[in-house]
Specification:
250 residues; alpha+beta; 4-stranded mixed β-sheet; two-stranded antiparallel sheet; 10 helices; 6 strands; 48% helix; globular
Length: 250
Amino acid sequence: YILTHFPNVEVLTNDINLGVSGARNRGISIVETEYIAFLDADDVWLPNKLLKQKELFSQIPNCTLVSCNCLQIAPNGNVLKEGHKNRTPVSGVDAWKTLLKYNYIPTPTVFTKTELVRSVNSFDEELKVAEDLDLWIKLAKKGAVGVVSDVLVHYFDYEGSLMKTGDMNSADTVWTMVKGHTESEERLSIQEKRNIYANRLFGLAQIHLLDDFNTANELFEEAISHGHPRLEINIIRSKLWLKKMIKKLF
């Protein structure tokens, strides 16, 4: 149907499972357009998404990537949250610093130039998760990031997604990748690195808290050593202790 009705579409079939990064990289290697964007089968671009992003891209000097706002949708169609609500987007030449703290760029919101993606070796096929964030950081380091505030994408959240299967392993992979980018970056001050580590370690500890309190506690202490407020962490510990006591009583 696609080939019959859309002659500008080329369908690629892989003989073996190349994984997310391998499949995308194959497309990146053959595409001939100036710009490139990504859309998985279960996500939706809204009308004029590409046009609005291309317009902003052309207005920003040395732009390397343009993102947009989005809605996270449950399988039943209910809206879970707005993408920018709890993850404030940052534009400009220092956006990569914020991406080291947290990712505010879901893959289907990205609009960039094909040659820019190729220049940083596309997606890292060694990464099973966070290969997208790794690429956004590499692109953001090369220039300026733009953000369209309009909701132009609906992306769907499923229990079987890669980031939800083996959450602790996934979180550890993200931490290792971010740490590598941070340690090697001479443009970051010592305080900026401390802030990045504190934020990431705090998030990692919260994930480990579900199954491994001792590891979580070690990560909390490490986050504190990098400047995360002890009071906030102690409140989390107190709530957990209270839950355990209630569970014992009942």
